[in-house]
Amino acid sequence: MSDHKPRTARITPEEALSYHMEPRPGKFDVVPSTPMATQRDLSLAYSPGVAVPVQAIADRPETAYDYTTKGNLVAVISNGTAILGMGNLGALASKPVMEGKAVLFKRFADVNAIDIELDTEDPDEIVNAVRLMGPSFGGINLEDIKAPECFIIESRLKEMMDIPVFHDDQHGTAVICAAGLINALELSGKKIGDVKIVLNGAGAAGIACLELLKAMGARHENCIMCDTKGVIWQGRTEGMNQWKSAHAVVTEARTLDEAMKGADVFLGVSAKGAVTPEMVETMAENPVIFAMANPDPEITPEDAHAVRPDAIVATGRSDYPNQVNNVLGFPYLFRGALDIHARAINDEMKIACARALAELAREDVPDEVAIAYGRKLQFGRDYIIPTPFDPRLIHVIPPAVAKAGMDTGVARRPIIDMEAYRHALQARMDPTAAILQGIHARARSTQARMIFAEGDDPRVLRAAVAWQRGGMGSSIVVGREADVREKLEAAGLGDAVRELSIVSAATTRHLDAYHDFLYARLQRKGVDREDAHKEVNRDRHIFAALMLAHGHGDGLVTGATRKNAHVLAQIGQVFDVRPQDGAVGITAVLHKGRIVLIGDTLVHEWPEAEDLADIAVRGAHVARHLGLDPRVAFLSFSNFGYPVSERAEKMAEGTHVLDARRVDFEYEGEMTVDVALNMEQAAKYPFSRLTGPANVLVVPARHSASISVKLMQEMAGATVIGPILTGVAKPIQICSTSSTVSDILNMAAIAAGRLGQVR
């Protein structure tokens, strides 16, 4: 394992374009939520059945929330005039951003969102278009529209529409900024009504930040706003508009430098380098600096702390502590607003969101979150805002927002049982993303030297580059340097050659040690010294396994170019990977918010009862590594002895073996798949020891495991991770020949995180 600190992730243009193009162009699909298989289904979904909810809505418009997606559907709207700090690139160019916004809504708060790009810069046309499509949606999220048009559009739409209209560039930034400031002032021992605040950047975000802070108690006369022409003071006429004028103050200061003297708080939504260390030096004791310009802050935390060690610093970047990230706000604001069928998102709801975020940052941080960020997270100067992957956000923030909406009279349908609502929020989140995040987080914390055995495959090379540049650790590629260089150049990654460690039998200084090791291992299996040497020199799988065995890497991923049976056999020349050695393959299948582990999918061809028990133990071990409470089911075509079959009896015997071993997890069998996974079917067998749906499925043989996994993958579109090789002395993972770059990275992360390792 490497002692190096985690590397900063670096995304290449090729990776970005590939992500947006594969497996299909764009970032989301529309998937039906009701059955569409039979003529009856179609008759209910459309004609004649659809006439019934149509009439119900015509009679009572509020029932649209009951019979349509309106109550969980947000429109993400832009005209592309202010794209991510890139400027006015047009409506079409903004589509990748808006699609991204839509998937963030879904990923973090289970809100369905549709992106709509309007090809006009005329505020009247935008207002009219959005107003006319209002009946379709439960809320409107405006995005990347330049100032001052964004103010005009939002203000007019709020007046016209009876659903929430929210401009995230303004209010999303303001909410997260406010949350961080609450905690920063708490640590500084200051109150918001007393502090002097300087804001640099009088655009949409800056004005919204100042307005929200004033609504929370900041005094108008204590807040100085600056733009590119200096301080906005009462009487200034140059470069002014009505929104800036509202924040003009009586002051002698005319420049940012002058305004910063004695300031308690600096808020920056401007440009890189706008603040100098000299300015920071003149600030009050325990200054708070939110340098939120993207991609580079007004001043870096290093430069600020160099002159003021007492400063609390936040930025918009993920590679520094205290990231001001809008994803902490808008998904949960809309989640809470939609769930009460809100007419608007008002200041009280925004303030409730900010305060709930601030309070969450003061609580103990779950271990999985700390692992994700590679450091201990505890409320203090370097942790004043929760992290985006905190799983508590979904059930902490929306209830606070919903309550504020109910208290202020904008709710059409108040929530009666708030505790039940919190439980419902927890239940609606798909664990897939969280599980994958946990796997990658665990891997990132190890900073493993990962051996990629197949350096002649472009997918493997792209994965190796992504591993290195993604800050996961270092990449060791087995291959010829000239060949690797050629393939990387063809993939548009020619500059990555110097970043990778490229090793082969021809270049390693450890070749003699590898020869001796393999000969000693195989000499009593009819392999002479010359043949052992040839195996090391010629077979990359054996060579890579020998590197791992000698500690010249921390993990190994292979299998993208050869069938896994062949790869397993070659690795078996170096490591003990036979069934009798305790090796087992476990595959994770993730689908529609559920995860099941299936075994054995790699090693045992036809397991007997003892083998089945071993598979169950290994599966339970993997489940626990994934944060699951294992519930093991031994599967068959029969349930608890009926119908009688020799093959079914073998599965029942597996439970008897576990009885004797006195394992510490739930298990039961034999049983059919529906009884294992469907609690209504399981209720027919009240004596079953499973307290919930099984999440570890032990199948009769490797062929049935393979059929099950591939059927789910091809017919249901399930996400498949694995097979995860367990019970081996070193972390080795074997991909499939159909693996994508992402699949290879996932297997590398599993190896680095030692998922399922028991020795």
Q: Care to give the gist of this entry?
A:
The protein is α/β, with parallel strands linked by helices and 759 residues long.
The average pLDDT score comes to 90
Task: Please give the share of residues in helix.
Answer: 40-55%
Cα Rg = 30 Å
Instruction: Name the beta content range.
Output: 5-15%
Q: What would you say the CATH architecture of the largest domain is?
A: 3-Layer(aba) Sandwich
What profile does the largest beta sheet have?
6 strands, mixed
- The total strand number stands at 21
CATH top-level class of the largest domain: Alpha Beta
Give me the CATH fold name of the largest domain.
Rossmann fold
How far do the termini sit from each other?
Answer: 16 Å
- The largest sheet has its strands arranged as 7-6-5-8-9-10
CATH H level of the largest domain: which superfamily?
Malic enzyme, N-terminal domain
Dominant shape: globular
Q: Supply the helix-strand structural class.
A: alpha/beta
Task: Describe this protein with a few key phrases.
single chain, 759 residues, alpha/beta, Rossmann fold, 6-stranded mixed sheet, disordered N terminus
